[in-house]
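Protein folding task:
====================
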Amino acid sequence: MKHFITLLAVLVTCTLSTPLASFAATEKDTAFTDAYKKAFENKDAIALNGFLYTKGADPEVLGFYTMMMTAEMGNKISSIELVELTPEDVKKATSIQPLPSGENAKLPLTPVKKLVVKVASTDENGTSTSTSESFVAEYEGKYVIPVPGPVK
């Protein structure tokens, strides 16, 4: 029993010492996800594309990003959140990737979070869910989704 009480005291101390900000989304996070969800569910392609940071983007990759962002719009978002990057995410986000043209590309901005969107859709074939993930960076004080561009 003494060990249980000691363990409980350690767990409570660790929990209380963790900053509350790590458990709750910031106002900036909430504003971004709310605006994204509204644009997505209202089929507002212009607003959705406005989240993209396109400076220096490869045109083919930009077309792909635009298509992927709007492909399921109008469906119900069952879950949307900005999550902290894992070490694997950081490695992937900062690595150089090959383009279909044979050139190499990378993200023009360093991501600070990852947007995770779960979409539920229903049609004559039944109900399905999908999950998409996009890196999110900060540019001029706001969150954006950077589109990869050629490495120079």
Q: What stands out?
A: The beta strands are 52-53, 76-83, 97-98, 104-106, 111-123, 126-139, 142-146, 149-150. Helices lie at 2-17, 27-41, 45-49, 59-70, 87-94. Residues 1-23 have pLDDT under 50 and may be disordered.
